[in-house]
Amino acid sequence: MTYQEVIEELYALENQEKVLFKAHKFGIVSNNSLGIYHKDLKEIAKKISKNSPLAIELFDSGIYEARILCSKIFHPKHLTENLMEKWVKNFENWEICDSFCMAVFAKSDFALTKILEWSDKEEEFKKRAAFAIMAAYCRADKTAENALFHQFFPIIVKASTDQRLYVKKAVNWALRNIGKRNKDLRNEAIKVANDILKIDNKAAIWIAKNALKELQKEGVRTSDYPRKIYRKA
């Protein structure tokens, strides 16, 4: 599909009632939105397949759904730090932030660099991006050993007092996903959650309790990564 064909298809799906519904139901407030759900964007993405030049054009259109579509068709191997910095400045809600972090950023060569760099940033969705990448990286890198994830725990503890909704939810998400990577990281994540629980801060207490509820749940499943160590006999 050409750029113009994609734009025309997006406008054919425009539904402003969905824009209002997403804002009310899911807190997704976006500029220049057409009101198109993810399932419809996925269908368009399937027709296009991976196409990084087209993805960049779509992001630059300024249309919200075109930017979401960009995250679905951009190939992570083509990512640059300049593009990451350009795109993250335009993240205006959790949906677009998570779409890029899960589909592109966590699968790129810059994932670890940006986790460390952005986790200290003041901007809400840049900071969320650090922890969304962290959460997604638990599945994106199936071969990394536990030592890599150990370095994330102090970062999580430090950010656990951030009261902002979309930051604290991402911090919690990262802690839970690390804990669900394998049985040893689960035990360590539980210890970290208990340490966070002792902090006199509402956000920290919420993060800890929510993580403990999931990680201590009977029958909680782990991914058993890296498989060379945790593959079941």
Q: What characterizes the major β-sheet?
A: none
Terminal CA distance reads 47 Å
- The CATH homologous superfamily of the domain at 110-233 corresponds to ARM repeat domains
What percent of residues adopt helix (DSSP H or I)?
A: 55-70%
Supply the helix-strand structural class: mainly alpha
Mean pLDDT metric: 96
Class of the domain at 110-233, according to the CATH hierarchy?
Mainly Alpha
Q: Remind me, CATH topology of the domain at 110-233? A: Serine Threonine Protein Phosphatase 5, Tetratricopeptide repeat
Order of helices and strands: HHHHHHHHHHHHHHH
Tally the beta strands: 0
- Residue runs with pLDDT of under 50 for 5 or more positions: none
Strand content: under 5%
- The backbone outline, from C-alpha atoms, is globular
Radius of gyration: 19 Å
CATH architecture of the domain at 110-233: Alpha Horseshoe
Helix count? 15
